[in-house]
Amino acid sequence: MIAAGWCSRSADQVHLLIAEVNLPPRFAVGCMQWHHLCEVVTAMLNYSLTLPSDFADYEWEVTAKGYFSEAHIAVSGKQYRLSFYDAVRLSQEIESELESGGVFFEPNLVIVRSVTRIEMERAVEQLVQSGLMALLVPK
Q1: Rounded CA gap, 107 and 82, in Å?
Q2: What is the residue range of 88's domain?
Q3: Burial of 6 by CB count in 10 Å (0-12 exposed, 13-18 middle, 19+ buried)?
């Protein structure tokens, strides 16, 4: 069994899950701790991105502004709030903060080409598949 308390799956079960979710080869290295591998694979099978129900009504405005902070993701029972920026808006925000003598900090910051539903969904999928979800700060 894999690290009791972390994951109840056997090594064979984890290898089958790896194949099922098409996990990148770099995660299959022998030095990776089994409990983390199991966490990543399980997360890849169980996540959901939630946007406001009326998001489609104002998606054009979000895209024009280049910023959206009301996206939520649930992964393996944990909830996260994500902030999406496009590169132009992010540079404007950073510049504004620095000019006023502040610092720019945003937990769970995700940079996308354009702040659209499709781009946010792709970004979340990449976060999950890459194992970067482990770096997010839960709500």
Answers
A1: 8
A2: 47-135
A3: middle
As a whole number of Å, the CA-based R_g of the chain is: 18
Q: Structurally, how many domains does the chain consist of? A: 2
Residue 18, phi-psi category: left (phi > 0), alpha (psi -120 to 50), beta (remainder) = alpha
53 and 74 inside one domain? yes
15 contacts: CB under 8 Å, gap ≥ 6: none
What pLDDT is stored for residue 129 in this prediction?
Answer: 82
Give me the DSSP letters along 61-89.
Answer: HHHHHTEEEEEEEEETTEEEEEEEEEHHH
Could you read off the pLDDT of 102-131 as tens digits, one per residue? 999 999 999 999 999 999 999 998 988 888
Q: Give the distance between the most distant pair of CA atoms in the chain.
A: 55
Supply the DSSP symbol for 30: T
Give me the sheet containing 78-86, strands edge to edge.
Answer: 47-50, 67-75, 78-86, 109-112
